[in-house]
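Example record

The entry below shows one chain as it appears in the dataset: sequence first, then structure tokens.
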Amino acid sequence: MTEHPVLVIGAGMGGLAAAIDLARAGRRVIVLEKASTPGGKMRQVHPAGRAGIDAGPTVFTMRWVFESLFADAGSCLTDHVRLGTAETLARHGWTDGSRLDLFADTERSIAAIGDFAGKAAAEGYRAFCGRSEAIYSVLRDSFISAQRPGLLDMPVRVGLAGLPALLDTAPHRTLWAELGRYFRDPRLRQLFGRYATYTGSSPFAAPATLMLIAHVEKDGVWFVEGGMIQVARGMEALARSLGVEFRYAEDVVSIIHAGGCVSGVRLASGETLEGGAIVFNGDVSALGRDLLAEGRPAGPKPVPVVGRSLSAVTWCVEARTEGFPLSHHSVFFSDSYEEEFRAIFSRREICAEPTVYICAQDRQDDQLPVGQKERLLLLVNAPAIGGKGAFGPSKLEELRGRAWAMLERCGLTVVAHEEAMAATGPDDFERLFPASGGALYGRANHGLMGSFQRPGPESGLEGLYLAGGGVHPGPGIPMATLSGRLAATQLLARARGHRTGWRLGQSAVQ
């Protein structure tokens, strides 16, 4: 009797990683993706047929996650993806004309911060870096690359000797409050408070634990030759070499289940596919709202609007810039940071002067001839209320005017023709990622329990496993990739009739 394949719904990072680990363990795998390319949120946009512009994640970190994935499959990351090291992590600008670069070299950053805000700020940054590294060290193996814990599991995982370090991760304090221990200059609190947005959250509500992101960036940021989409394409090529079958332009409209167990999927074409197990790499809210609607079984509940992470409004443009010298990553801060997040999470709107992030994708070495056209992704944070029609074309154009004006206050002029521009808002993200409301990071990581509210790989239905940025360990390219590996590990362990340990390891996939 032929064993039914594992069906992976979605070719995002979690789905691709799960497919690779399952295939190398000898399972037959079919990946079903409604788009025409792999990557999920890691996508490219081609304004008016022009060269592709990364329209999703733009920062490649935690390289070890990908090196391990490829090595475990008998391959090498750099055989599939060409990487270059970033010396400048990001350039930051404010409306008062001040600028600050952060570097991969800690001592260079300390010197720059000293010139920017004084000796006390430089020493505060040095202490902050040490704290960030300590938090990362205690959570890398006990949380980030481990199966989903409960709050009370963490002391057991780190052991008695690790309890002081665990308490020092400060999940009971907000990131914004904890940053005040290191930085008196409000601009520096803005800059490092921005790490909360990496998980789609507000620095005024997210736990101080997120300080670990500073160490992740200092540990290495890389450019991806050809754009971030090449990471997904490299993972797809590895999966294909292991025998994984990919079916693109295939929209899964329902997951077939009975008696608390899944058995296959139904496609928009009417075709039914049987599966021995399913890995769902999509927004978990789609399960409770649509895909598992028949019979309404137990499983992950949709994330309520008040619990959703940030959405965004983005513009992919081919433009010329004047004034402020862009780096590959640049951030332009508004004058009222707290108002920006109060508007999004309390009033579900975008404030008058939002912070603007720009990825200048042709500036890997920060050099570009004056006046030359370049590819830019511009982004402002937005509330996740997609699907309600609040972000139509006129609203997006009005918001663009405010964002461009904000940039000019910081010294940057962006000159672009309308035909060389493509805007995407929460309504568009809802269409791309159904049931999310446009939330790009799943559930917001707010409060003491925020990190523990994301589901783990087991859905509550036999045979259905979860992967992606909306589940443990969280959003971002490396985290979503780890979620796929954790899902594969759990699936294979269940198939063998036992539970996995809490650490991600090779034992379950060899």
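Notes for this example: The longest helix spans residues 119-144. The radius of gyration is 22 Å.
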